[in-house]
Design brief:
Elements lengths: L22 H5 L10 E2 L3 E8 L2 E6 L3 E7 L13 E4 L4 E2 L5 E7 L3 E12 L2 H5 L8
Antiparallel strand pairs: 1-6, 2-3, 3-4, 4-8, 5-7, 7-8
Length: 133
């Protein structure tokens, strides 16, 4: 049985010391909502109900859904994952993130994210128990 404890942010987590969302991201406001950006070090827990979906809790109240480009081996069984940001320490859309997992018998796997969505409080509350981070 997979335990949903805390997200172990490993050395693979990049930090670039940005003070806010990247300026380039701010100029492309049509591609995402700037209010859904978060700083990678604020991730506190995760849950993966299947091998293509990851829910991440950021801080106390925010929950984000990450959809993988394809199957991410053992993501739904892992107790430790790393969330790596590309380009800065902020994640503002799916293309900014990559999930790193340690798959049984395969070793470390990088799983690109195709989409990210910040859940409303109602959507987060409605998640099945297995999917709640």
């Amino acid at each position: 049985m997979r335990m949903q404890t805390t997200l172990a942010v490993t050395a693979a987590l990049l930090t670039c010391g940005a003070a806010g969302p990247p300026a380039a991201a701010k100029s492309t406001a049509k591609s995402y909502d700037a209010q859904q950006c978060f700083y990678t070090r604020n991730v506190t827990s995760f849950a993966a109900p299947d091998d293509k979906t990851l829910y991440v809790r950021v801080g106390v109240r925010d929950v984000y859904r990450f959809d993988m480009f394809g199957s991410c081996p053992d993501i739904d069984w892992n107790q430790r994952l790393a969330l790596e940001s590309r380009g800065s320490s902020w994640i503002c859309n799916g293309m900014d993130a990559e999930v790193i997992t340690h798959a049984t018998g395969i070793g470390r796997q990088r799983c690109p994210v195709s989409a990210m969505h910040k859940l409303t409080p109602e959507e987060a509350a409605a998640l099945p128990r297995r999917a709640k981070p």
